[in-house]
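2024-03-11 09:14:02 INFO receiving multi-entity request
2024-03-11 09:14:02 INFO entity count = two
2024-03-11 09:14:03 INFO echoing inputs for audit
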Amino acid sequence: MAEEILKVEHLNQFYGDWQALHDINFTLNRGEVLTLLGPSGSGKSTLLRCLNGLENYKSGTIYFEGKKVDPTEKNWQNIRQKIGMVFQSYDLFPNLTVMENILLAPRKVQKRSEVDVKQEATKLLKRVGLEKYVNAYPRELSGGQKQRIAIVRALAMHPEIMLFDEVTASLDPEMVRGILKIMSDLSEKDHMTMIIVTHEMSFAAKIADQVLFLEDGKILEDTPGKEFFTKPKTKRAQEFLDSMNF
Amino acid sequence: MAHSAINVFLEGNNISRIIGGLWTSVWIAAVSLVLGLALGTILGVLRTLPNKVIRFVLRLYLEFFRIVPTIVLLYLAYYILPRTFHVNWPASWMAVLAFTLWVAAEFSDIVRGAIESVPKSQRESGLALGLNKMQLFRYVLLPQAAKLELPATINLATRVIKTTSLLMMISIMDVVAVGQQIIEANNQQYPNAVFWVYGLIFILYFIIDYPLSAWSKRLTAKHSR
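2024-03-11 09:21:47 INFO inference complete, emitting structure
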């Protein structure tokens, strides 16, 4: 029996008068990969950012691990320790070395011992092939390397869910493959629960257990992954897939 | 002959008095800077928070200290505080108080500007890791802001050092006050002492301020590249 880790009910978000998200409803099971697809400006990133409280949504309810989320800043600080996020622009802290970037939150937020976290960080760095860069500063790394460090930094917090917001969008095509491989491994080997916003269609088709197709802030389709890419339910989704040359 | 007036420095302990006066100026500037930068950092952080009341009050504070001439601040501290509030500190500590509040006001604006120019995504990636506000400022925003603040801060420091020349107005024996005493005391014997004494004071201020100013210029050039 699949365990429900995240449930969203009637989520709405406004910017001024403009409604960015319309009545969003979905559930996600532990260990599954949910992919958010849709044209630019359809609300994918906004939705993702609502899930860890970076956006203050106007109305609606989020349940995390069966508990209703009380959307106060204090409470989000706790939840963000369990919901990791990786951004398109990497956003490593330029004033800290690679190791310091990784240690910061586990040490200061979770108060874990330095020896433990360092050991784990080294293991994770090895896994993404960057163990020799522990003392480097972000400015010395390429985009792809920075993004791998950003993933390691999020993983070091032992998240229950990982959010990926177009993490390959500003990378060289050669770098993209490496990042996607790390994400596939996370799903297959670690059974990490993930929510991914991406424009990499063949990757999405391979990894998605479930697809939400959004347009103008509405969910047009909530379809199992395999089905979405072979026979989408809506005409709009078919057109979208065609436009992406899929 | 004019240049023979240089011998005024050999009279009595004139040189060591001038150096002593310079030390008074320098320690008042240094203590004011240390206290003012610390207070200014806190105020600058508060000015980036969403609370409108705090922001308004701190803005008023900044404008007051920016608009009112420093000499007036010194008079306020020196004459009003003892009389009205019965604060009886030595004049030099009154000066430190006035200078500290001035530095804090100016620095709060530098800090606010620097924090606001750290990319918004840095704040978000910190929050996404579960950092609280304090941790976000302490480990992410302030260290990055410090780099942006440096040229303007050095500039502020040179202004503070220069402005210590006003200290004589509240009867502190700073380097300028000592210089004037020497000139007056030696008026008969060395009528041209004024040139040499102020010349030396000029050189002393220059030696302290020029390296700071050059450093700030270099940093500014580096940033704009």
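2024-03-11 09:21:48 INFO post-check: The mean pLDDT of chain B is 89.
2024-03-11 09:21:48 INFO post-check: The interface with chain A takes residues 119, 121-122, 124-132, 135, 139-140, 143-144, 147 of chain B (CB under 8 Å).
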